[in-house]
Amino acid sequence: MTTPTALPDPAASGSVSVALELAELRRSVDVGNATVQGQLALLVQRTDQTDRRMEDHESRLDALERNRWPLPSIAALCGVAGLAVAAWQATGR
After folding, report:
1. Which domain of life is it from (predicted)?
2. 30 lies in a domain?
3. What is the C-alpha to C-alpha distance for residues 73 and 76, in angstroms, rounded to an integer?
């Protein structure tokens, strides 16, 4: 006598496929989450580098502005000296 084969329970196979789909969905979400975290870490690193570059440029600009202040004074002195020489020559000396 042959033993009857058991037919798979449709409810059980449905829950297994749902479990497999949920596992696949979880893996996809985990991969996407890791990708987003990596991209955020890269953005934070680039922001830090940009902040450091801006601080460096700001300090260099401040140094240039501090060293530039004598130029207008020197130009004014040269103008006054030229005026004095022109006045001296105009008086006939």
Report:
1. Bacteria
2. yes
3. 5
Instruction: For residue range 55-65, list pLDDT tens digits in order.
Output: 999 999 999 88
Residue with tokens 């130009």: 75
Q: Could you tell me the residue range of the domain that residue 82 belongs to?
A: 15-90
Query: Which of 30-44, 61-75, 77-91 has the least mean pLDDT?
Result: 61-75
What torsion, rounded to 10 degrees, do the Cα atoms 49, 52, 53, 56 define? Answer: -160
Tell me which of 17-21, 36-40, 62-66, 80-84 is least confident: 62-66
| 2 located within any domain | no
The two tokens of residue 79 are 């103008």
Per-residue pLDDT, averaged over 11-18, amounts to: 77
Give CA–CA dist 49/55, Å, rounded: 10
Q: What is the DSSP letter of 34?
A: H
The structural domain count of the chain equals 1
